[in-house]
Amino acid sequence: MSKLDPTESDIARLREASTWIQRLNESNSQAAVEEWLQWCESDPLNLPIYEQMQNRWNVLARAGGAPSPMPLVSQGRQRRTALISLAASIVLVVGVAGWLTLRHADVQVQRTAIGEQRRMTLADGSYIDLAPASRVSDRYTLTERNVQLERGQAFFAVAHSAVRPFIVRANSVEVTAAGTEFDVRIDPNHTVVTVSEGRVRVAPGTGAAGAGPPVDTATVRAGVGERVTYSESSRRLSVARVDTEVAESWRDGRLQFESDSLEDVVAVINRYSAHQIAVAPALRQTRFTGTVSPGHVPDWLKALEQIYAVEMVDEGANGVLIETRIGKSTHG
Amino acid sequence: MGDANPPPAAPRDAVVVPPDATANAMSQLFREHNRVLVAYLTTRLRSEQEAKEVAQEAFLRLLELQGPCAPIVLRAYLFKTASNLAFDRLRHRRVQLRSEEQPEFFQDLDSTRREAHDPAMELLAREQTEQLLGLVRELPSKCQQVLSMHRLEGCSQHEVAERLAISDRMVRRYVTYAMLYLHLRLDGMAIDQVLEKVTL
What we know:
Chain A is of the alpha+beta class.
C-alpha cells in the first residue's frame, strides 16, 4: 500500500500486522494461528498488508546473509547526535559490521581449567571443542563471526555461510573459513592450523609487532590434511601435509604427535596436569613422534629416557625438567 | 502470488484429487487458504519460495486423509501439518548449513557476493537490501541494536532481551516500532511525517 497519508486505522492495522508477524515468527502455537486466521478474515485489507510488511521484513533477514559489497549510500538527512553520525560514516566505509562492533561489543569469553575439555555451541550452530587450559572469546557481528583463541588449543566446526566468514584470530594469525572444520593450536613459538574438512585461508595478522624480520603478509589457502604453521621468529607461514587424525586426537583423550618439537609437545601435555614439565633449551627442538596418554605422563617420561639421551630432573614443586643426559656426561 | 491455480493436468498438483466429497472440500480449502497458508509459512521460513513448496507438500499430505472431515477441522489440520513441515525444514536447514561447503567461497569472500541465479532479481534484491539498511540507520541506536541481533543474527526476541538485559515486552516494542517506521519510509513518507505518526 503506497499511501502517503495513512490514517489512524491504517497505522493500527500496520501495528497489528507487525505484532502478528512477530508472534507467528516466534512460536508455532496452533492457537495463535487460529487467532491470526480470524484476524485475516476480519478485514480483506489485513492479509495484503501482512504480506507486504512481511516481504519487506524478510529483506532484512536476508541482509544478514548477504552484506553489501559497496559502501552504503547515505540517506542524506542525519538527525542524530554527532556520535551516531560518526558511527554512520564509519558504516559507509566498513559496512554494518563496523557499526555493530561500535554498538555492541557483546563478547563471550570461555576458558577451560587444566585437564578440562569442553564443547560449546555458538549462536549460528558452529561449535568449538576447547582443549584444556585454553581460552577463547567470540564476538559475532552482522558480517563476521569473530573468534579469538587467546591461549591453548581449540577445534572449530563452522556452520556454513559463504558471506559471513568465520574468523579465528590466534596470536599473529588470522584464519578465515566459511563452513569447515579445523584445529588451531598456540605453541610457544608457533601457531598451528590444521584443516580436517573444507578449506580455510590463513593470513598473518596485525598482532606481530616489535623487532624482528618484516612480516610476510602473503596469505595461504589450506585444504583437508594440510597444516599451516606460523613461526613467530621468521614471521612466515608454511604449509605441510599431515594426518588430520593426529591433529584431532586430543579430542578423544589421546595426544598424538608427528614430528613436533619437544617444546611444543610438552606445552600441550602441560595443559593436562598441574605437575608441570620443562625442557632444557638444548632439547627444545628435538622432534617427537608418538602418542602420550594424559593420564600416564610419568610412563611417557620414563619411555623418553630410553628413546632419547635424556634424563628427568625432579625439581619438586616446580615439576620435572627434561635435561640432556649425554651432554652432562661428556662435559663432566 | 497470482499463480494459485496451476493447470489441472499437472500430476503433482494439489488441486487434482479424486472427484468425491473430500476432494471437493480439499479443492475449496486450497482455493480459500493457499494464499494465507503461504503467508503464514513465509513468516515461519522467511522465504516465500520455500513457503510455497511446503504449502504444496502440506496439501499433498492432506490428500492421504481418509473419510470426510468438516472444513474447519481440515483447515486446522492443514495448518498443523504445514507448521510441522516448516519446523522440520528449519531444523534441517541448520544441519545443512554445516554440510555444504562452497569451493568457490574465497571468491565469494572477496566480492562478498552470493552466486546470482538471476542477475536482474539479484540486483533488485541488493537494491532493496541497501535501501532498507540505509533506512535502518535512521532508527534510534537501541532500536538498531535490537534489530541487528533479532533480524540479522537471528536471535529470538527472548534471547535479545536477555543479552541486552531488557524485558521481552521492550524488545517487542522496539521491533514493532522499527517495522512500522521502515514500512512507512519505504512507502515514501518523509522522516518528519513518520516520526509524527509513529512513536516508540
